Each structure stands twice: as structure tokens, then as C-alpha cells.
Amino acid sequence: MSGSLTSTQTATLDKVTGNWKLPINSNALQIGQPLNVTATAFDVTGNTTTITRSYQVLADKDAPSITISSHHADETVLKTGFLLQGNVTDDTAVSTVQLSVAQEGGNVLVTPKNLTPTPAGNWAYALPNGILSQDSKITVTLTATDTSGKQSTSTLALNVAGAHEENRQLLSRTTFGITDALLQEVTQLGTTAFLEQQLNPTTLDDSVFAARMANSNPATLAEFQTATLQRMIGSRRQLQEVMTWFWDNHFNTDFRKTGNKLLYELAENDVFRANALGNFRNLLGASAKSPAMLYYLDSVKNVKANANENYAREILELHTVGVDGGYTQKEVDTLAEVFTGWQVQNDRFFFNAAQHNSVAKVFWGNAIPAGGVDEGERVLDILARHPATANYLCSKLVTYFVSDQPVNSLQARCADTFLAQASAPDQIAQVLRVILTSPEFYATENINSKVKTPLEFVTASVRATHAQGTYADLPAAVKRMGMDLYQYPLPTGYSDTGDDWVSSAALQERVRFVNLLANARSGATYLNTATLFSLQQAVTAESIASDLLNWTIGGYYAELEWQTALEVLNAEGAFNPNASNAEARIRETVGTVLSYPEFNYQ
Fold it and tell me: What is the pLDDT of residues 457-485, one digit of tens each?
């Protein structure tokens, strides 16, 4: 060893591990001068190996410097937990960093925890759900010690607010998947203002997405399915897209039975989107005259000499009053006669007067004078304003947005609004406002209680991870999980209740999908992990796990799931964002978290 002094000393050797150590006395060191250390090892036969290293001797003048970048003094945090992060530096080297949390009054919530900063000094700690109390004050204390024993302490006072579960509830039910940007938006605006924007979609600037879709002209069913998913994933007008799908499923048709004419499905989808939050009578009329529906339920075969009752039965049972709406076979028979002559010509609705049974009729106690297409229009007016229709549609909407179990009080208020606003151009928006601002909607038992359908699971996975691409492979993924878009053969449409989507095979397919997604570096749908966490400046294992869990399942995870995410990130040693294995560790963690059972719920 050479520096200000030259000496030879014997190191202490652990013969089991081969590790050795040698304390260097301060007398051998001189600030600003190099220190050359030469180590020589001898084996039992006298063979030697020598290695030399040079070091610069520095003076340890200052204690470590601690910064907390994630929060400022007296900021409000949520009782469901939050992520603390910052940086620690020293003029020599940091030996330890400890964090503790205490509640006002001295109650210790987190005993001192040793943190492991990255090589750049970044640190993070996630306070889990279950340890903070609403309306309390807490103090976070960070203590850093350098290698010479110098120590510094930084404290941060924070206020704890109630969990904003209502934010997640509103987003999970009114969008096709929560994103970090939407969480920030609803937090800034509040649930009321956010909902009003979604209920009035033309007030939302969606020009960026519209520009991306400007050249989208689907020519095949696969292209139309892809375009549908692109809208669900990319549009800012999320509630409009949610309701577009609701009506498309409510007035279900099967592409294969309509002669494989994509024009019919495209036209139907456009009119459902235009009226998604509008008036039900317009939706009902558009469906009744849609070539897709006219072919699907055999209205084109409904002629004067041989009335076909398929559409008459389904418009009652599935589109309006419901199977328990109080109608009888007599109403079905009369309705079939009313709709004779409703056919298709030149790919458009065509009323064939020669095939219409133009005689006076009585439908459900209502006189229908002999006429033409006006007979059907009169019946549609009656059905659109029928109390049973209000009750049936509200039962479906409450099931879709609130709970798989009946919520009778909310259903009744919804039905009252449906009937009171029967002439309003924004009838459906007003009905949804009743549902989405109700106490029942935000009731504890209804939060995070609905199982995502395959469609919702796929879109939520893509949105949460900011997956990019054309999404041309997603329709096949949704189909493998049980939903073949626009090709469901039954007029009921796909189920909105969880019991129809939960099975071991279905869940295995979901796990398969998210792991393929997480590891996709190119192709139709892929992840760019370089930008996934960059906006949040997440560079530690704790910050990455916290962000990912927040975007996907919020506070609904157990300690085991938190630890599992960290273990995956740290599987090959402490996670280092600059290491060659960082991307692989992040991708595996994304797949792991999206495979958690809680992500199947919304």
C-alpha cells in the first residue's frame, strides 16, 4: 500500500468464502493524493497472484443530502396508500437510508425501514393500503448516513384524506380501462365535472384520435372489429364508446346472417354511436329499419300472406318491455302483422306496401288505424314510452354499470327519469346521470365488484400499459376469450354478468394474453417499456411496482401481491433501470400484475 506512507500489512482472510478485508488507518491517507493498493495472494506451494488498484482520497466534508421529490409539505395523500420517492447524495458515499412514518400524537405507523437507493441515489417507498387513517396527519422521516458516520435527517408532514375510490369506480365503469392520465384528470376535475364531460362528448376535443382514424375505411369484418377496438382504446369520448357497444349488443345482429354485408354493420354502428347518449326512440327506430336487423330476425320474410313473428317476438322480449313485460302471444301476432312489408331494397330500408297487411289493428289496447309504414312507427312510439320498457332497460343499465345483483331502488328512479324524459334529445344521458351519481353506484359493495367481460379485459390491459400498434391482433384475442365481435348468433347479445365469464379455461386464456402482451416488442400490439414509466420518473423497483398496481388494480391488492411484484423486479439482484436486464424484468412484472385475480374486476 502506498500513499503518504508505504507499508505492507496482512489482510484477514475467510478461507470458506475467500473474502478478505483490511482496515486502512487514516494516517495512511492524505487528502488529494492517490492511494495505491497492491494485494498479493499466496497459495500453499508458494505461487502468487498480484492485483493493484488506485483510489483518490477525498475529504468527507458534508452529511448526505436528502430530497423528497414526490410530495411537498402539507400535501394531501390518500388513506389507501401512496408512493414516496426522491434522491440522496453524498460527497463520498451513502451507507444507509432509513424511512419511518408516525401519526400525529406519536403513534408509529412504519418502523424504520432500510431503503436501497439506485446507483444514482434514487429511492422509493410505497406506503401500503391499510395503515393510514382518514383525516389524520402523518410525518415521514428520512435519515441518511454516509460511510464516515455523518448523518442528516429530512421530515415531511402530510395530511391523509379519504380514499378516492369513487374516482376509480367512475373510471372503471364509464371507460374501457383506467389509465394514469385519466386518474390525474378525474382527480383534478372531480367526478361531477368529469362525468358531465363524458355525458356531453362533443365538448371533448378528440381531434388527435379523429386524425388517426381519418383514413380508416374498413373493408372486411376483421378490419371493422379492429376499428371498433381502436375507438374503444383511443377515443377520449369513452362513455360514448361504452354506450355504443351497449346498444350494439342490446340490438344484437350476427354479421353472418346478414349476407356478410359489412355496409349494414357499419351503418348500424354509426347510428348507435351518434345516438348513444340520445333518445331511445331514435335508437329503436334505427334498429328496426337497419338492414342488418331486417335480415337477422327475418323481417325481409315477413309478408302479408305469411307473417313471420321473429322480429315481433324479439323486439318485445329483448329490445323493449322484456320477457316479463306483460305481453301475450296476441301482441306478438299483432306486431308481426304491423311489420309486414318492412324489407330491404338497394341495401336500404324499404317499405313494400304490396306485402303489408293494411287493416286496422289493436296492439296491447291501442288502436292502430289501417295504414302503411306509419303503423310500425306508431307501435315503436308506444313501446319506447311503455313503463315496462323503462323498467327493463333500466334493469339492464343498472346491471351493466352498477351490479350483477338487482338494485331495485336505483332501477325505479332510473325508470322514472326514462319516462319523464321520453321526448328529450339527451334522454339516455339523463338516465345515466341518475345511475352514475347515485349512492348505490358508489356503495362499498358495488365497488370493484363486476367481472370484466373479455372485451373489457383486453381493452383495459392495452390502455393500462399504453400498448401501441394497429391492434389488428386484438379481435382474435377477444374471440379466444369467448367474444366474437358482431358474430354472436343469439339475439340476446353477450352477457353482462360475471358468472358467464368465469371459468378456469377463460381465466387461463386471460393470463396467456397479458403475458404475450407484456413480452411483445413489435407486431400489431406491443409495449414500449422505455416510455411506460418515464413520465412518472419511476426508476426504482418500488416506484415501478407502485405505478403499475395503481394503474391496474388500485388499492385492491394484498401484501403478497406487492411483494411478488418486487420479487420479480429484483429477481436477478437489486433492480437497476440502466442494467441490461431491466427491460426483461419490467416486462415480466407487467405480465405478473395483469395476471393478478383483482385485475379481472372493475
Answer: 999 999 999 999 999 999 999 999 999 99
